[in-house]
Amino acid sequence: MFEFSDIITFDDLNNLYYKNSYACYYNTKGDKMSVSHIVVPEKISTSIKSNLNSRLNDKVEDYDAEASEKSIIYEFNKELLIQHDTIMNFLYPDTEVGAQPNPNFEINNSDEIPKSDKINFVIHVFIHDETEQEILIFTKHNKSEILKKIFWLNNQEDFKAMDKDKLYVFRDKITCVYHGNYFIFDQNEFHELFKYWEHMEMIRDKVINHLEDNRIVKNISDYKDTYKKHYNMKSIIKIDTENVQDFIKENKNTIHEICSSLDISVDFDKEQYQFSIRNEKGITILNRILSHRSGFNLRNEFITFPTYKAHGSL
To answer: Which of 307, 260, 313, 305 is nearest to 287 (CA)?
Structure first.
């Protein structure tokens, strides 16, 4: 763990100046992103820098989808972000950072600000005056705030007649910062901004199908609907389908001892390398056993996250 000021110092912040911004929005299907060049008011860019300054002393931890502590900044590996190459290709074409623009990344070279309720997020570009390095600051666009804010500012009878196409409320709340990696200030907004959960659902379905097709879970059909509930998402996506069967075989004795000696709602047949779930609680427990955190779960005592509840020593 370290402080965010190890990434961006107070001196760096004093040398940052605002360059420009890009308004980004998805199409209706959510499979294509469009972008338009914009310049935000100086009041907004100054406020963004001020908000960045307020987080410099916060602690930085590795990203964990199960964590959401507001006072912690989470570092997210850029290689894991699906849209990273697309964004870099657009911002830095024909360079070592980027390549030719992705054909699925539409560029609307418009001088006009896009319609307010289209925008999903804005990328603000700040440049270091001395090093000339660019820092990207992402602010999520909250569509529900637009008319509400304008309503309170302009509570007049002619409010309904205002032209929505010409309205935009810029936000200064930082969702994440890109500087070598992504540093997340707000986990929930980050997930929404990059449609994280839609992608996680695809991974979840792949894992469920693998467990079913390979008969790793004998009675998975009885719990398929529960498996797909959101609260199981964060644990099941950590199961590596390419290695899970080898893991079970290599640790069959330890797994059998865990399932037979502890009350965890999961049974294990070490001859068939097959699990049976006794009730819904067993789903999350089994996900933990099979996930990347298994190395922790199978040492000394079996622990389930994120509550760190110990189920007894082995």
So the answer is: 305
